Amino acid sequence: xxxxxxxxxxxxxxxxxxxxxxxxxxxxxxxxxxxxxxxxxxxxxxxxxxxxxxxxxxxxxxxxxxxxxxxxxxxxxxxxxxxxxxxxxxxxxxxxxxxxxxxxxxxxxxxxxxxxxxxxxxxxxxxxxxxxxxxxxxxxxxxxxxxxxxxxxxxxxxxxxxxxxxxxxxxxxxxxxxxxxxxxxxxxxxxxx
Length: 193
Hints:
Layout: H1 2-38, H2 42-47, E1 52-60, E2 69-80, E3 85-94, E4 97-108, E5 113-120, E6 127-134, E7 139-148, E8 153-165, E9 168-177, E10 180-191
């Protein structure tokens, strides 16, 4: 009987040891995964290229083939929250109305995608998008949906940001309708500081 109890006790201790060891290993793996997810990396350094002060020549097209409405704006970009997010503040004047906008761009280490949210005083919604970066052409390409008040519905859009040099980039936004892209906006930005 004592032998059976000792054997049973030995088995219980073995199982307990295996479970504790497994938990410690899993806890270590969980900590590493968490640290990897929260730590800024090379993609965040890429986002940091947008930090600084920029001037922008803005073109906006109301319909395909129409003449663009041209205005100017300023963009102030800064990395926030320990270098994890690029925040850009846009200010300008559009057809006599003051314009203010804010965008936050992130790189999600877990999902391996860029995420961006844009909002401004010309609406009450938020444009959310997801995208990738193509190193070969130095271009971010984002896609998403946004509300169009003229249609009372969400519309699909695409945004590209191409770096022409360290101090020059161009942002283009396209509305996508039935598979057709219509370029509605262009921001040609020059870094001044």
